[in-house]
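task queued by scheduler; priority normal; single chain, no ligands, no partner chains; default sampling; output format set to structure tokens
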Amino acid sequence: MSPLLVLAVAFVLLTLIGIPLFASVGLTTVLALYLIDIPYTLLAQTGYGSLTPFPLLTIPMFVLAGRLMEVGGMANRMIAIATNLVGAYRGSMGLVTVFACMLFAALSGSGPATTAAIGSVTVPAMKREGYDVPFAAAITASAGALGSLIPPSNLLIIYGLVSETSIPRLFLAGLIPGVLVTILLMITTYIIARKRGYGGDGEAFSWGPFLHAAWDGKWSIGAPVLILGGIYGGAFTPTEAAAVAVFYALFVGLFVYRELTVKKVIDALRFTALLTGILILLTPTLAFGQLTAFYDVPTAVQEGITSLTTNVFLVMLMIGIFYIFIGTFMESLAQIVLFTAVFLPLVTSLGVDPVMFGIFTVITCEIGFLTPPLGANLTVAARISGISIERISVAVLPFILAYIVGMVILIFFPELTTFLPDWFYGEAK
């Protein structure tokens, strides 16, 4: 039996018997080191090095900023703006949920955090309007996944670190695809809501209430303008922008809206610690990723796939299908760290821009958020709505299709991802 097959069998068995993913990858890495007689200190050295990059601080700070903005009143004001903008259309509250998730995604950087922040308000509202509960939860889970695509995005930060791709370029590249997927989700919501007769009984759109809500929520809207404007204006780096976001959230929550309390701040810190604890995956997965070079895995994958086809569209579709399958049982962070080193050399050899591949990777991870048994967003939506993941898993299928359509559009029109970064920074060399 070849060493690669031994490692694959070991990893699958460890995962199937319920060992946590970081331990499964770590034990498989130890086995790999043993098989090729490399000192185990590689794992310790990689573990130390994986947690030292300065940009890694961006993730917990953006998570903290997003949580403070949620409990400090900014999320509610974003929902109010979205509600007054949408008006009395079929599926209006569902459309509000998608639109509000898009706005909050520019603050949180996290899919599950966006789902929790917006869904805790809109799911009960949809219940009151007579929405089928699984459908309401499915809207929230799928729209919440936008938190991983629209900048600032934690997954794009990890991809940038692993692939050595410019994080500001990745952030800019996520804007157009983020809006595209938002539109696809809104179309899906409207079609289903119209067919089932949900919503449409509220007040029609008028400028007065909308302008009032916009004025009341000006500090909320100011957050993404400050964060993204500061990054692209050269005022601060993404890491510094995350620190500015935390200070802004504290200032607005304490002194403007006055809804933050010491207890809420402590709860936000606890939430941040729990959510960013997943970074423990970096140590074993980066070490395992380094070992793929020793086993010449990228070359083997490249030769295997190109022997079937060199058509870039088919290759990207094959990778997309693989990522979606893997995402059903693997954390998105581990997925990016493990497989970027394997597939990025292949797609770049076919002329795919690393920035485009980063956006493509994150979209497939978003689909993973919506597929059981792991499905982080499904788990959050289930807790909010009080129903089982199984019921939401069926209702979310049309929204998964919307994400797949968005993924296919980006494969055929990669300029949608590269246009803004190339226009703003110039074409990458």
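post-processing summary
- The mean pLDDT is 85.
- The longest helix spans residues 175-196.
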